Amino acid sequence: MGLQLRFPDVVAPLKNGRFVVRTVIAGFVFSPILAWLITKAVPMERPYATALLLLSFAPAAPFLPLVVSRARGDLAAAAGLMVLASVGAVVVMPFGVPLLAPGMSADPWNVARPLLFLILLPLVAGMLLKKHWSAAAYWLHRFVKPVTAVGTILFLVLSVVLNFSGFIASLESRALLAQVLFVSGLTVGGYVVAAGIPTKQRSVISLGMCTRNIGVAAAVVGTDGDPKIMVMLVIAALTTVGISFAAAAWFGRSARENWADATSPETLVARAGSKN
Questions:
Q1: 6 near 130, Cβ under 8 Å?
Q2: Engineering a disulfide at 76: which of 9, 58, 85, 210 sits with its beta carbon 3.0 to 4.6 angstroms away?
Q3: What are phi and psi of 212, to 5 degrees?
């Protein structure tokens, strides 16, 4: 994403108070509350519930730019949201995780590390390349986009293969139902919370909430965590990819229809008449 943006592009949405406030509310107030309510409403084993609560503090997956592009959303707003989500996770998780998931803790560096290496550093590097070698950035972006798509698919396949037995066992529980309710609720809730801002930014907040940063939650769990928590994170990865791309397709179709209506001969004639 950084290959397509300049620093002022990313800073602009961060100066928009309405965008910032709605992103913070959706990501770090609405999301944890929704996850907590689902753990109370849907009976499931404690490790599955713990994973859901961890995910509630980790909005904006690294593949967010891919779905935002598909949705014809605002890429600069997506970059701004990822910065807000990264900073917010580092600040909130050390306090929120012990509160909602007693017995667990979130070391700030463990949270920051995947955000730094998977989101912030690639974003800054891409923008620097765009600033100093624009042609090279354009050429590289042509390859980065399909590589990201293929990498996402491979990650999902490997996650299922490596956790296949646990994944099959979880199907007898209500873990999948909880994830579907959570991700769907975030998609709709993010869109509602973002009411009143431009449509292209509104879809970004909805998709940013819909996608979950699995790496951050996994970093908190660590290598010695409960295997069922990791299985729930695999279910989350599958769910968030499926629902986010479906939502992006809907947003993209709506954007195309709105553009077609705005550029139709009847609309252009009406605009010309109103000017006269």
A1: yes
A2: 9
A3: -120, 140
DSSP assigned state of 204: H
Q: What does the pLDDT profile of the chain (276 residues) look like in tens digits? A: 445 557 777 788 889 999 999 999 999 999 999 999 999 999 999 999 999 999 999 999 888 988 999 999 999 899 889 889 888 888 888 888 888 777 776 777 777 777 777 667 777 777 777 777 777 766 676 776 676 667 667 766 776 777 777 777 777 788 999 999 999 999 999 999 999 999 999 999 999 999 998 888 888 887 667 888 888 998 998 899 999 999 999 999 988 887 665 555 555 455 555 555
- Here the tokens at position 46 are 């404690």
Sequence-ordered alpha helix ranges (H) in the chain: 7-14, 17-25, 31-41, 46-55, 64-70, 75-100, 108-115, 121-132, 134-162, 164-170, 175-193, 199-210, 214-221, 227-262, 265-275
What's the topology of domain 2-275?
A: Na+/H+ antiporter like fold (1.20.1530)
What is the b/e burial string over 44-59, where b = at least 16 CB atoms within 10 angstroms of the residue's CB? beebbbbbbbbbbbbb
